[in-house]
Amino acid sequence: EYGNTEDVLDRPQQAYTRELIAAIPKLSRRTSSGIQPGDTPLLAAGSKC
């Protein structure tokens, strides 16, 4: 799309652009633990794998 950034992000005209914007993760959608499905858990220091 052509236009200034604000217009394209706020009012995308193309379906492809709308889908790209919809694919951006939303920070407010985190679970209460802060871990989202698919996240790799952090291993404790010194943990042996």
How many β-strand stretches?
Answer: 0
Described by its quaternary structure, the protein is: single chain
List SSEs in N-to-C order. Answer: HH
| Uncertain parts | none
Taking the sheet with the most strands, its summary is: none
Task: Note down, in words, how this protein is organized.
- This protein has about 50 residues and is an all-alpha fold.
- It has a domain at about 1-30.
- It is about 30% helix and about 0% strand.
- It is built from 2 helices and no strands.
- The protein has helices spanning about 5-10, 15-20.
- It is elongated, with a radius of gyration of 18 Å.
Q: Topology, pairings included?
A:
Layout: H1 5-10, H2 15-22
Identify the notable features of this structure and list them briefly.
49 residues, elongated, mainly alpha, 29% helix
Summarize the structure.
This protein has helices at 5-10, 15-22. With 49 residues, the chain is mostly helical.
